[in-house]
Amino acid sequence: MTEVYQFIAAGQAVYPVTLLCRVLGMVRPSFYAWLEAEQDRRARERADEASEPATSTPTAPAPDQGHLRLPPQGTAASAHQHHARHPRPMWN
User: Fold this and answer.
1) How far apart, in whole angstroms, are the C-alpha atoms of residue 12 and residue 6?
2) Shortest CA distance to 1 belongs to which of 34, 41, 37?
3) What is the pLDDT of residue 68?
4) What is the pLDDT of residues 42-71, one digit of tens each?
5) What is the per-residue pLDDT across 5-50, written as a single tens digit (0 to 9) for each?
6) Rounded CA gap, 14 and 19, in Å?
7) How far is 81 from 83, CA to CA, in rounded Å?
8) Which value, in Å, is the radius of gyration of the alpha carbons in the chain?
């Protein structure tokens, strides 16, 4: 029955609801009751979507994932590990 009401809702821009309901064998007050309930459902869905927290917020990687670790605050950043693996050439 919802499909018929959806058809009437779509066709009401072109034809009178009274005519559509008569041709389709529907009762006009039932259509308006469905239309009001449909609008209420959509309003509830919009309110629910607005109150849900966003699921696509970025999160920090876990420390054990091998990402770059910064030195403790207040210490000088050095790249001694990098130089240990790839020493600079010695020039005289």
Assistant:
1) 10
2) 34
3) 62
4) 999 988 888 876 666 656 656 555 556 666
5) 999 999 999 999 999 999 999 999 999 999 999 999 999 998 888 8
6) 11
7) 5
8) 33
Question: In this structure, what DSSP letter does residue 16 have?
Answer: -
Q: How much is the pTM?
A: 0.51
**Are 44 and 50 in contact, with CB atoms under 8 Å apart?**
no
- Contact in structure between 70 and 77 (CB atoms under 8 Å): yes
Q: Does the structure show a pLDDT above 90 at 76?
A: no
Three-state secondary structure of 36-74: HHHHHHHHHHHHHHHHCCCCCCCCCCCHHHCCCCCCCCC
* Helix axes of 2-11 and 28-51: crossing angle, nearest 10 degrees: 90
CA-to-CA distance for 37 and 34, rounded, in angstroms? Answer: 5
